[in-house]
């Protein structure tokens, strides 16, 4: 009887097991570790930014209340808190009173004010990398002014910095 198989080959029937390369195992473990670390880092960064944005929104609501209080105080003195020619949109001393009442450390810029109801129509609150812009969406006259509005929270960071020459 002649056999067509060469004498050097061994024929094994049934299930054959192959051993994977150790380099492939190491590469797979490293790849999984890197993917997990990136995913956890992205989630942690998102959670930190989200928590800061919620805090900035909360502070901006306090600023809105402080603006109304200080505006009422100036109204009692027959003046207005709003000064469109000032860099922050308020008369001298108003920003300090708002900071004292609200106990917030950010910067407030008043863009629009309703003198009849002593309420802000639009202002910006900046604190660190967060910027909150409030815009009144309710009736701009009467008791509803400065009560109904939208808060838009923005997060920004410095990409480039150039010095003046």
Q: How would you describe this structure to a colleague?
A:
By secondary structure, this protein is α+β, with helices and mostly antiparallel strands. Helix content is 39%, strand content 19%. Strands 1-2-3-4 form a four-stranded antiparallel beta sheet. Strand 2 and strand 3 (130-136) form a beta hairpin.
* Count of all domains: 1
Question: Low-confidence parts lasting 5 or more residues at pLDDT below 50?
Answer: none
Q: Structural class of the secondary structure composition?
A: alpha+beta
| Average pLDDT rating | 84
Largest sheet: 4 strands, antiparallel
Number of strands: 4
Radius of gyration from CA coordinates? 32 Å
Helix content: 25-40%
Strand order of the largest sheet: 1-2-3-4
Count of helix runs:
2
Q: How would the global form be characterised?
A: rod-shaped
Please trace the helix and strand order, writing H or E for each element. Answer: HHEEEE
Name a few traits of the molecule.
165 residues, alpha+beta, four-stranded antiparallel sheet, 2 helices
Give a brief outline of the structure.
With 165 residues, this protein is α+β, with helices and mostly antiparallel strands.
Describe the SSE topology.
Elements: H1 22-76, H2 94-102, E1 107-114, E2 119-127, E3 130-136, E4 149-155
Antiparallel strand pairs: 1-2, 2-3, 3-4
